[in-house]
Every structure is written in C-alpha cells, then in structure tokens.
Amino acid sequence: MIRHVAVFRWRPDTSAAAVERVTEGLRALxxxxxxxxxxxxxxxxxxxxxxxDYAVVADFDDAAGFLAYRAHPxxxxxxxxxxxxxLEARAxxxxxxxxxx
Length: 101
Fold this sequence. Notes:
Blueprint: E1 2-10, H1 16-27, H2 29-32, E2 38-43, E3 54-60, H3 63-71, H4 73-83, E4 87-95
Antiparallel strand pairs: 1-3, 1-4, 2-3
Helix pairs in contact: 1-4
C-alpha cells in the first residue's frame, strides 16, 4: 500500500469560501479516481502552533495507483483551478504505512 500525505499553507488573503471550494473539489475525487482506496481531506483545527493550513491523506494499492491519481484530469483540475490560486507552500510524502524499520 502507498499512503500519500500532502499539506498546504494558504496565502494570507485566502478566504473561507476559497478553502471550501478546495474541500468540495477534493471530496469529489474518490468518485472520479478509481485507484483511491481511502481519502481524507480537511482544514487544520488550530490545536497547535506552527501548523499547516490543510491536509490530504490518500491511500492506494500501489505506486501505479498513486501515479494514476496524480495525473488524473479531475485531480489536475482541482489542483490548477482551486488549489494553486491560493497556495503559498506545499509539502508531500508518499510512504508504505505497513513498513517498519
């Protein structure tokens, strides 16, 4: 299994409506992208300091599933139309949650 985690920091002038548009777009992706096995998105709850603003956690059977998601037109549209216009910074990692070293 592959787990993809992405966190976003929005531009300071980002409105709540813009973030809601991101959420709506991302929450529609499981119906559009067959390789998604689990998908969780949401804004930071503000429980700590120096947090990122938003997170996406997605599970896939394998690397091919992740790559299919990354290139899927529905995902690319959400990224280009809803995320990039308000994005200040992004960090991401993909890992195997079953591996222990």
